[in-house]
Amino acid sequence: MNQFKGQTLSWELKDGVIELALHREPCNEIGSLTLEELEKFASAMERMQNQAHALILYSTMKSGFCAGADLRELYQGAQGMEKQGAARSVREFLERIHKVMNAIDSSPLTTIAALNGVTFGGGLELALVCDLIVADKMARFCFPELRLGLIPGFGGIPRLKRDLGNAVVRDLLLTGRSFNATKAQQVGLVSQVVGEGESLNAARGTAAQLGKFDRRTAIAAKKFIKPIPYEDLQQEIDIFCELFTQPAVEAGLKKFVESKDAQPYLP
After folding, report:
1. pLDDT digits (tens, 9 = 90+) for 1-28
2. Distance from C-alpha of 105 to C-alpha of 228, rounded to nearest angstrom
3. Is-contact 84 245, C-beta < 8 A?
4. How would DSSP label each residue in 132-195?
5. How many domains does the structure of the chain reveal?
6. Cα dihedral sign, 141-121-61-251
7. Over the stretch 71-83, which tens digit does the pLDDT of each residue have?
8. Which residue range(s) make up the domain with 216?
9. Has residue 102 been placed in a domain?
10. CA–CA separation, 63 vs 72, rounded Å?
């Protein structure tokens, strides 16, 4: 299936480039429906990758790339369940989303995240699976999970540790502060910063350039420089599920769900 239009995302293969567009209002929160469609994409990507050399992930939402996990769905799903049952449900979700993330991370395609606006939590984790990150100047990056009594659960910590220095990892994780695109480029999180609304065009230009190179060389180089930290990723799931049963998490999620703010995920 070289083309698909779903309720939360769409993809198309054209001229050797797969483009995956996120389009769930308000800001591409990742819930069960998005996960189902991401799983469809992961299966389709495996079939399409022999016809392609690059993959671009981007958002059609002006609000941003992705605000992270669907916290309302997470909170509502846990209501009425005993804690261990809720933890089992969360673990199943995390195992599934990690499988998708790992598939994109380990793909032989050269993968590019074209970012705008809010790139928080699970949205930043989705960007981190990509080989290259292109951000427009309005993009902001944050791991706000600590405010909920949690850690990032979609693979963010091991991938940040793989890509960046400990000082940056600890700052993002422990303070919950956000970085702008300039700061993100300075610390090595972003490879290119472009004008507002220009990240997709820049990513397309990069993908076209990549098509001139020998695919076997690119695949070998990616495999060499980008190991997948599978053991750490599994440990992250274990820690997240352990924390999820704590009272602080229910209180944090309840506060988020009951917030009257238009964008309660903002720091």
Report:
1. 799 999 999 999 999 999 999 999 999 9
2. 7
3. yes
4. EEEEETT-EEE-GGGGGT----SSHHHHHHHHS-HHHHHHHHHH--EEEHHHHHHTTS-SEEES
5. 1
6. negative
7. 889 888 878 778 7
8. 3-198+211-258
9. yes
10. 18
